[in-house]
Fold each of these.
Amino acid sequence: SLILESSSRFLPPQGVKLSYGTAGFRADASLLQSTVYRVGILAALRSLKTQSVIGVMITASHNKVSDNGVKIADPNGGMLSQHWEPFADALANAPSPQELIQLINEFVKKEGIQFDGVKHAEILLGRDTRPSGEALLEAAKEGVASIVGAVAMDLGILTTPQLHWMVWARNKGMKASEQDYVEQLSSSFRCLMDLIPSQRSKFDGTNDKLVVDGANGVGGLKLKVLEKLLNGLLIEVRNSSEDGGVLNEGVGADYVQKEKVAPHGFGSSDAGIRCASLDGDADRLVYFTVNPESSGAIDLVDGDKILSLFALFIREQLSILNEREGTKNNHQARLGIVQTAYANGASTNYLKQLGLEINLTPTGVKYLHEKAAEFDIGIYFEANGHGTILFSESFVGWLEATTNELSARSKGSDAEKAALRLLATSRLINQAVGDALSGVLLVEVILQHMGWSIHRWNELYHDLPSRQLKVKVADRTAVITTNAETVVVSPPGLQEAINNETGKYSQGRCFVRPSGTEDVVRVYAEASSQEAADSLANSVAKLVD
Ligand code: 16G
Ligand code: ZN
């Protein structure tokens, strides 16, 4: 068979066991040839099974440049169905071509996959700027080609969210090229700019430039393309892939958020300027300002605060819509907020005070996304800067009908504008996955809409001091949690001990969880002062050890 021929050229490395974790397969790039080839096969089977276009993205996101990884985008543009993850693991670890073929045959039978279905398999392939990506993409192509009739489209260098967006758009029957992505984002951005209330000042004049750290990756490159179409929004990109710096080294959203320092290329001369940082594949976004007093220190505006800004804006539009008079088809939209236990406690309190419904899920995009999809409008964000706003199809349909009705009856009314803003937001913000590029555009237009500087935004609430630690343990799977990772159920007694420590601190909050991407147990602690948060984290780390 085709598979036997090509798989014998992609033998798995010995003694390495890979698992399809929260971020797909990830490892040192030199180990991944056979894994990526096999993910190509997996994607083709997934495409046959779902009779839809499937995506394969080659990236290791914020990890070091020598790493790489591969993950699948499902028909809706989201993560691979969890139900297929065990098969992905088995495929990646099959020791020989014969065993690989046997696994495939069994799985094809079990899933009832038809090779002579109406549609042949179609796979969109993308990669980030890692040098290892080119050869790995070739391996993925060979994997796809080993399935009869399957077609792979090589889209070259993309951000992860662009690839997910294209899969989502293709399966909705929309135009789905990179150019279509750029056009949709830029036109909905301009639409939102045109809807800014005229009495609101467009900034205070002193800081209307945005400076973006591109993590030496793909995001800066693509942002420069977008920027030309934004009608005068000034964006200066630093640390773009073509600038020659090392991907993710001392730069990028993960570094900035975890270390709370300015990325390479930013210094005291940037004090007070609005800055943002993307991660290596541009699916995370944080904002910051450089602190003039101490070198390298920043004021961080993290995912929680981006979520808060989005929630305020959406809530404002919904309440304008609710106040409109005499409409027949009234509809109280359900707005839901989704966070993880890493959300700063001050953000959760703030959102609760606004009267919003808050849901907690375990860490990992697939959990947050799934929860957010239950609402008319669901906003999810991880503190690390990954998140988006999901609009349900039925709500978008209602919005379109309402906009038409309002345009006919009360053109130019506040209600019509609010409806148009929500519609434009649903087109601007990526519906498949968190996207730093669409996120940055939405933040920028909302700040202008509110007439706010980054400082005003950052003052929405004050983060509680927090500390994250990681503990190397013999077996991280020994730690089992429940209630969105806030409670340890095993080993027995550990949660009581954590409660006991936490009780000693004013505003103390602490949880531990096994990492999904590293062989460590993570500790998160929050308290009323930095010293207290540090001390709580340290004593709980000792309990875990
Ligand atoms: C992955 C997740 C991210 C999560 C992080 C946690 C996706 C696409 N990415 O990067 O959402 O925050 O893992 O890592 O799901 P950890 O389990 O090592 O703490
Ligand atoms: Zn990323």
Amino acid sequence: SIPKLREVFKNHFLIGAAVNPITLKREEELIKFHFNSLTAENEMKFERLQPEEGKFTFQHADELMDFAAANGLKVRGHTLVWHNQTPRWVFEDGRGGQADRDTLFARMKAHIDTVVGRYKGLIYAWDVVNEAISDKGEELLRPSPWLEIGGEEFIARAFQYAHEADPDALLFYNDYNESDPVKREKIYTLVKSLLDRDVPIHGVGLQAHWNIESPSLDDIRAAIERYASLGLKLHITELDMSVFMHDDKRTDLKAPTEQMLEKQAERYRQIFDLFKEYKGHITSVTFWGVADNYTWLDNFPVRGRKNWPLVFDLEGKPKQSFWEIVG
Ligand code: G3I
């Protein structure tokens, strides 16, 4: 018989999946069986919730919340302030120019008040700021309209507004390439500076978009250690394991090779063993998807190239990767 993931890991961390309106319906049974946490893959992003100023569209987000409440799942909110999937009006003055700083922060506050306020007490953790660190060289913060108009203070503001809107919600800084040694130190520097200024931040989200080759286990461990040393909670927020190594440009595969699946299973076992070592630090592990029949990686880095990065196959059946992590 098939063990439930949420039972297997109940003494370690919550086990979650990112869903969209289609997968939430199609994979309903799988979700209810295995998971105790949900994240909206897209439906709680700024452009989805407030496409026009003051016009909020909560239908899909509410449907996810209703499903979670009806089935006893927790919800992680994703995401409030990001350079991506944010409508242009947020940064514009309506006369062809750029919004000024006060206007930008007023819009940020209005958005956060409304969204976090609506789900107060229901969404227990929020990715408040997503991907604000630069991937380039020495540069600390990623260039974006948030930074350009608001200055680096935009990050602290977002956390303060979120904390005011729901003082009980756990507030996270979330990023990718989190295990790369250079980016790891930048994330550490940012989060440490927030803590030093008493900004209300409670955790670091490690997206964990990994592949069967990299990052190395040593780099993953070093990142976990470094962030944990700040005394914050760690959530693995967007886990998947691409079957393609970094330089694999093949686009003709109709199915993953045996070798890919074996390597993937071994890696999944290793990282779950690692996560379990950090009991009390890592309190949630969320997959960025449910089953291999749909993943954002089908369109990244190559549009239309199928990938198989999750632990359930195209039919929602457990893969070798599943059996290794529950083993
Ligand atoms: O809904 C529109 C549709 O109306 C339009 O016709 C179509 C044309 O391209 O686009 C549709 O929107 C797409 C959306 O996903 C919904 O499927 C966007 O193009 C597409 O860019 C968007 O991709 C999402 C991506 O974030 C955007 O940055 C992925 O689904 C989502 O998995 C991904 O998630 C991010 C996390 O939020 C943050 N960390 C990285 C992670 C992976 O990129």
Amino acid sequence: LTSELYPSVKRNPNYKKLANEDIQFFQSILTENEILQANDKEDLAFYNEDWMRKYRGQSKIVLKPKSVEKISQILKYCNEQKIAVVPQGGNTGLVGGSVPVFDEVVLSVSNLNEIRNFDPVSGILKCDAGVILENADNFLAEHGYIFPLDLGAKGSCHVGGVVACNAGGLRLLRYGSLHGSVLGLEVVLPNGDILNSMHSLRKDNTGYDLKQLFIGSEGTIGIITGVSILTPPRPKAFNVSFLAVNSYEDVQKVFVKAKKELLEILSAFEFMDDKSQQLTKHHLAGVPHPFEESYPFYILIETSGSNKDHDDEKLEKFLESAMEDGLVVDGVVAQDETELRNLWQWRELIPESSQCQGGVYKYDVSLPLKHLYSLVEAANARLSEAALLGDAPKPVIQAVGYGHVGDGNLHLNVAVREYNKQVEKALEPFVYEFVSSKNGSISAEHGLGFQKKNYIGYTKNPQEIKMIKDLKTHFDPNGILNPYKYI
Ligand code: FAD
Ligand code: MLT
Ligand code: ZN
């Protein structure tokens, strides 16, 4: 079996090709509703293709077990038979990690979707891995709590999926990384053993912190089936302001000022360049942008706290002074919930706007703040030199920059009319070399997946890579989980 999408990657012949006896085994433990097989009516495209429509596998079978025990039986069998398996959550990952490369079995955890327990005193939530993030957050809202992570894919991605990717999202600035808020995990290991580590302790220094290994492991060493997470009280008051600034220098200055002056109520600080807004305007044809005029950069600031009057006053003072200083040249503040959502959409819909023109090359990097935007300028210069950027028939529509300034995380998106090897060659390894030269990370939050597995060396040194490989071999000696990816 070969893939026309990935001519240089060969199917590993050590993996068994599914035979009738394997399907019979799956049928012996799963009900009809828990197995999808490719046939005349069902092509399994949803499970084989990723959100960006960039990566496509050829799996003929999707298993959707309804219990942890069934996952354990499936993995034990696949491990013995050397059948490769791709764990899948909401399939919103952005590095090609969630879909098969060849004929791997897709194991979706979407049928494990129950809230297990919530303690309203500590704020600790225990739930199945397949609970959709937005559902978890809506459940918490009823109890006055909030999920400590928010991102544009919340309506589809799973709690287990975000943990498997160690997703960052829009409020990491406030609530920190999942490495801090996840208190415990339940994981089915490749040999079928169930690791029950669903702790609910904030402090526990008895031995290695095993759960940390699985946070960000992208389905390569175990399938996460349960998550125990500390959730904070839900803020009563939210404010969002959308600001225009003249330079990236000024974005940094406003960030420093916002940290100092908004301090404990600052919950998001996002930036967008003008090109990203042009793409989003095009996508949202007819929806008015917060500003009639265009400016080089925009900032979205969210505050959240417990007292609206207090927060309003603080934000107003901050904005007045930022305008007096000449840092902010224009600004709007949402007056109600609808306006708040409208302002957020100009940030949250950038990914969709850059993807839907035909395709998108995405780079999600950490860089020292002073160098953050220079990558977008360098990428644009490179695409221009290569005569790839411009009006049709040139393949590149726009190279845009936006991201989580508060976390030193830039998203460089290159929107294309269709996926094109010439564009890819111009950008890779160019982008990774650039990031490495500034001591950044080639993956701030989306992970390695299939896209970056050959590039990990731009961020990790040989000793670190060896240790990661040793850990993979320790947990998954037959390499059945999510092959061809990560490392
Ligand atoms: P999937 O896409 O199904 O899987 C992702 C990876 O995790 C795969 O390698 C898969 O094998 C593995 N996996 C999934 N579930 C499990 C499990 N239960 N056990 C073991 N492995 C598993 N990311 C950010 O960090 N910040 C953002 O702001 C952000 N915004 C986004 C906005 C949009 C519109 C989209 C489409 C994506 C965004 N992402 C963001 C990407 C982010 O990685 C995913 O949305 C999310 O983390 C993946 O969750 P999922 O359930 O869809 O997992
Ligand atoms: C975001 O911050 O919007 C996400 O990480 C998704 C993306 O960049 O596409
Ligand atoms: Zn992001």
Amino acid sequence: MTAQPMANLALVPDIAARPDKAAPPLAALPLGASGADGRVELLGLTRAEIAAALMAAGEAEKGAKMRANQLWHWIYHRGQRDFAQMTTLAKDLRERLAQRFQVGRPLAARDLQSSDGTRKWLLRFQDGEEAESVHIPEEDRGALCVSSQVGCTLTCRFCHTGTMKLVRNLSPAEIVGQVMLARDALGEWPSPPDGRMLSNIVMMGMGEPLYNFEHVAKALKIVMDGEGIAISKRRITLSTAGVVPMIARCGAELGVNLAISLHAVRDDIRDVIVPLNRKYPIKDLLAACANYPGLSNARRITFEYVMLKGVNDTPADARELVRLLKGIPAKVNLIPFNAWPDAPYECSSDKAIRDFSEIVFNAGYSSPVRTPRGRDIMAACGQLKSASVKRSKADILREQAAKEAQLAQAQAAGLSA
Ligand code: SAH
């Protein structure tokens, strides 16, 4: 397949008629900003950007908006990747589109199924970097746990993803591509109005979504669009370790449900297990939560709390949690710690978790203990890590120390400024 630079396309009106320019098989198309053969990736673009791409490729300005809407319908409502099958478009247009554009998917390098039905995909992107997404089925619905970054910069002490060396933001196409891939696998095209096994999205995979907000927001707006994937903001939850300055924007721009990875009720402990706390301490975090738009008893912030033996799991911690949450419409998810190789913590005892839950529950907050899902395939909370970036423990400790020194320096600079 010879590459056809975009700029030349408008000058070659008969390109579709040339047999050597036939579209490659769909499975061979990797997801990317532009395909290896110069085709422009449509996934992850807004409608306006699709219209602009059509015009840049020589399509008439008149009707570009309507064509973009038609493409949107095929791509996001029908899950169609083959332009030839987009039968509401004129045949010659379909052929031209196939020459110039592609609708890709992330490559599923591995596809693991847990004994409990949880399914984990290891995704490989065009540059070879990897991230994971996890589908967690319930009886009559299911959530997809979506990654926002390759790796994560936060280095939370109890989280496996934090031990990855490489970090980069995922593009909107790579984020929305995770949803498309899961939909393909579940056979949920065209978008079913109800009874979906992919009914909810949780931005709880690898990465800190509020450190990649622009791309996450763009992807989620595509996911929420009523004429496409159509998963409403009420069924989407974004989880953050507490990037305080971005919380208001997340609420205003997306209005999705918010989850906070709290995990400790005292700054001295949270500073250690969630190092981001040194930048944005508990008080500031909770103030941002209290101001999150649209909160009510029916729409609460979820506080995630991983149960770590001897670290954060006493009845006194539970009572302090209740005190801190006062005035915030909240629910608490207690997550039994999921172990990973060389993890420096242990899970709290069943009794400690039960007692903790009871105190929070008796204070009027829902406080379910999360049943770990997909532990056997390392798909449970905090277990995600792509193998291409394994490091030695010594490296991890060295880098941790360097990051801490950096953080301290930044803080000192901030204080003296
Ligand atoms: N960076 C975001 C998104 C990741 S969500 C955030 O921190 O919220 C992943 C969730 O799993 C977070 O609540 C995280 O704290 C939790 N988690 C991480 N490691 C875990 C582990 N080993 N056991 C249980 N939960 C863990």
